[in-house]
Amino acid sequence: MATRTFGWIQNPSSTDTLKDILGLFVQGSKFHTYMTEERLPLLASAGLFQTPNLYLEFQKILRANKPIAYNVLKGKGAGGGSRKNAKCSGLAQAAVTGQQCQTYTIDNKIVKIKKPYTDDWTADGFIRWAVSLGFLNYNYSDDTCSITLLGIDFVNAENTKEKNDILGRAFLSYPPVCRVMGLLCKYQHMTKFEIGAKLGFTDEAGFTSFPQNIWVQAYEEATDANEKKKLRSDTEGSSDKYARMICNWLESIGWVSKKPKTVKETFGSKTYECEITSAFEITAMGIINYRKAIGMSKSPRIPKIVYREMLASRASDANYLRMRRTLIIEFLSKHKAKTIEEIVSFLATKGIQEKATTIRDDMTGLINIGLDIENEGDTYKLRDIITKLRFYEENITKETTDAIVVKDRARVRLHNINHKYLTLIDYAFSGKNNCTEFEIYTIDLLVNELAFNGIHLGGTRKPDGIFDYNQQGIIIDNKAYSKGFTITRSMADEMVRYVQENNDRNPERNKTQWWLNFGDNVNHFNFVFISSMFKSEVKHMLNNIKQSTGVDGCVLTAENLLYFADAIKGGTVKRTDFINLFGKNDELVYPYN
Q1: CB 96 within 8 A of CB 118
Q2: Which residue of 78, 186, 276, 325 is surrounded by the most CB atoms within 10 Å?
Q3: Are residue 227 and residue 321 in the same domain, yes or no?
Q4: What are phi and psi of 123, to 5 degrees?
Q5: Helix axis angle, 149-156 relative to 160-172, nearest 10°?
Q6: In this structure, are 289 and 318 located in the same domain?
Q7: Looking at the predicted structure, is the pLDDT value of residue 149 above 90?
Q8: Is 142 a catalytic residue?
Q9: Where would I find the FokI D3 domain in this sequence (predicted)?
Q10: Among residues 163, 479, 569, 584, which one is catalytic?
């Protein structure tokens, strides 16, 4: 069975292009005719097909009026070459006109036109969008797509009102849209960061939200115009991007308006104020239509389209999580109130053994993806009618990787801190893919959850972060390693450099002067390496760093950092006692002596 990723859409935004791709399935439509009579002949004449036979193959498929194979729509990648230079290999690729003009030779004439096709990644995004909104049906058994009645209506829409009415119906069937609209109804004016923090399964990788106060602090303290530009255009979590894209869709039909928001954020001991342009309000029309979606008007409740792929994203055990959450929805689909213990017992009858804490986090996540679930205490009732969710014929065995084992162990022990910080374990074991997220969430935990002073630094010639309390300051080096971390000589030398720069505080040595971010009263320093787990003897390398700098340090796993954080938040460990441990020259383990 092919692996597809329906459910979470980040990049497509043009509903006109979406309509064009749907037109591939509707014979006699304006775009279908354009494809057969103009676009495909153009691509053939310019020699832009990956293989010459694709022209006749695509013409035959468009005239067949049958479901179209997903791979035929999406096409192939660049095959190791540049995506920019790859030739057209998919029908949906051919349906999308590029933004940049290029020069081609057509019928022995040189012409400059917009690129008459796109890449497979962009095409795939539009196909997944069409499936997730219910414009296309996806058949798991043969990996094909066919158009729905709503999709045909959208293709045949003749004016803006018709088009927007149909888009509105489709949007309301997509749970994340309802989640975003519900949040805007409740909180009125929100930035993408504020929405993203409440969207999706926030306790696992794939649903990251950049902490707003960390972003504001970084933006306000940035002195370089290019750095500020990068923060505005490129710095956001995956959930923040989902939120922004959804709001842009809703803005296009008048249900949401984009309105900059001035925010005041406290980070550590400082307060910052700035304007965030990516902020949104729901309109009166949006409120009216949101009420339709949740059955608060005379109109019937709109069923929600939930493909199983929506139920997990980049978690290492995503397939198992999707199966477990599919079973939970199946159990709740009778629309009767169920307790957490009843859900746990039901899962046990299906061969799935999970703790109540895990299922409670699942329920929070299902609410956060946009399902209308009534929650009173430990009791949950699903109000939505769910469509497209394909139940599993057999169980998927839960993986037992180090990251999964550690995360499951930690989840049941954390009673005081937000479980979103469990993603620290995902990031610690992720390797180089999520280094920045690991750094940011570490500072987020220390500052926003535990009230230390601190800052994310990162980048060249700076440690990943620092934090302090009273007179004590800590230099942080995050190390994301899937198989565990060993302090090598080069990594020890890097920490030696940071510690010596802080000792000397000479701007000639490092013009960034990152050490100035410590509080003025901080005069005692230590350092820490934070990672997934540690291999070999760490004491020797820690002592080497001490001998070179005169400063003591330690190592700390993400798991034990969470345990200490939970104890601090619960009042059983004092912040002073915690920060005093960083001069131990050994690994910190909770509980400690």
Answers
A1: yes
A2: 325
A3: no
A4: -60, -45
A5: 160
A6: no
A7: yes
A8: no
A9: 311-377
A10: 479
